[in-house]
Amino acid sequence: MPQRVVLAMSGGVDSSVAAHLLKAEGYDVVGLFMRTGSHGESEERRAKTCCSIADALDARRVADRLEIPFFVLDFEREFGRIQDYFADEYYAGRTPNPCVMCNIWLKFGRLWEYGESVGADFVATGHYARIAQGPGGEPRIGRGLDRDKDQSYVLSGLSKEMLPRILFPIGGLAKAEVRALALECNLPVHDKAESQEICFVPDDDYLGFIHRRRPDQETAGSIVDETGTVLGEHPGIEKFTIGQRRGLGFAVGEPRYVVQIEPASKTVTVGRRESLTRPALEAERFNWQSPAPEGPISCHAQIRARHRAVPAVAEPLEEGRVRVRFETPQAAVAPGQVVTLYQDDMVLGGGWIDRALAE
Fold first, then answer.
1. What is the pTM assigned to this prediction?
2. Beta carbons of 127 and 315 less than 8 angstroms apart
3. Which CATH fold would you assign to the domain 277-357?
4. Using one digit for the tens of pLDDT, what is the confidence trace for 26-47?
5. Is 135's pLDDT higher than 80?
6. 22, 101, 165, 220: which has the fewest C-beta neighbours closer than 10 Å?
7. How far from the centroid of its chain's Cα atoms is residue 138's Cα?
């Protein structure tokens, strides 16, 4: 009997080509679409999301073309948990990463639970990442071949126990090769536009979204400089992220950046660009995909999706915390974001940035 794979199909070209490749390799492929409830049908949403009704129809068309079974799973309640997390983090003065949570809770959580219930051996997605072999022979997440599309950063929260059950069929391909394969196979989504990163905020109005999600919050306060001098007032801390320059609501003749957000006092501190750099950070809830080291370990650290990983030393602390010290101080270390650690393009693990350190 062929091994069964449940594949997260979004209606996009990446997961569609993943379905083709898995079937070509002889797997028993079951396509699954996650219905999240974020499915408005404006032209803008159809162009930018991965969870609309139109996307479900696209995924079904691909499944029919490939002659694989296809099911829609109702994850609206679970997806609401991600949306709540997104809004609550901003009100806590932190910068959330909903894609990481979606991978942990849904794609490799609830979706895999369904896979187990139907006798699946693996779960697969269209991520640009690879399952590589660590020094001890253990499976590890590795960077995708296409560095411009590499998504290993948002997969560092997956448990090492989960890794033997994961397949990334397109991780060894470039995006251009994926589109070429889709065209060659006559898949109806071969020229479909890519979805945006935050699928439930298609108009990029994240403030409007979180205000609708949490309409009764009151977080207005003061904007101060690093000496504590009040420079102005702001309508709410949720409007700001570490490193932000535009939209501060005042002018002082030279650029100022958000360097600190204090939710208790509702104070936003701004400073010059050099004030953004920090030599180190502490992360919490750290998930080691490799065997956890007993002491400091050399690595590369990536602190946001579009950040180039830099040389660093990571030191495990108590209670699932890790201190990361950069070889060169880094700008805009934002609490709430994920730090992912690498060695030889393989993920060591990842955790949630709790605080930037001044020394």
1. 0.93
2. no
3. Elongation Factor Tu (Ef-tu); domain 3 (2.40.30)
4. 999 999 999 887 654 444 444 4
5. yes
6. 220
7. 24
One-letter amino acid for residue 50 of the chain: C
Partners of residue 8 on adjacent β-strands: 32
Q: CATH classification of 4-126+169-184 is 3.30.390.10, yes or no?
A: no
pLDDT tens readout for residues 81-106: 999 999 999 999 999 999 999 999 99
Angle between helices 53-66 and 13-24 (to 10 degrees): 20
Residue ranges of domains in the chain? 4-126+169-184, 218-271, 277-357
Q: Which residue among the candidates 50, 51, 99, 102 is catalytic per the annotation?
A: 102
Amino acid, single-letter form, for residue 25? E
What separation, in Å, do the N-terminal and C-terminal C-alpha atoms of the chain show?
Answer: 58
Which whole number is the average pLDDT over 289-296? 94
Q: Return the percentage of the chain with pLDDT > 70, whole number.
A: 95
Listed residue (24, 8, 11, 17) closest to 182, CA to CA: 17
Q: What is the dihedral of CA 160, 88, 270, 282, to 10 degrees?
A: -30
Residue 249: predicted pLDDT: 80
Whether the CB-CB separation of 187 and 16 falls below 8 Å is answered with yes
Give the whole-angstrom CA distance, residue 290 versus residue 323.
17
User: Architecture of domain 218-271 in CATH?
Assistant: Roll (2.30)
102 is catalytic: yes
Nearest in space to 178 (alpha carbons), one of 198, 192, 165 = 192
Among this protein's residues, is 50 annotated catalytic?
no
How distant, in Å, are the alpha carbons of 228, 261, 268, 356, 358 from that of 264?
A: 16, 9, 11, 18, 21
Q: How many whole angstroms separate alpha carbon 357 and alpha carbon 47?
A: 40
Q: Look at 136 and 343; give whichever has higher pLDDT.
A: 343
CA–CA separation, 96 and 91 (whole Å): 10
> CB neighbours (10 Å) of residue 190?
17
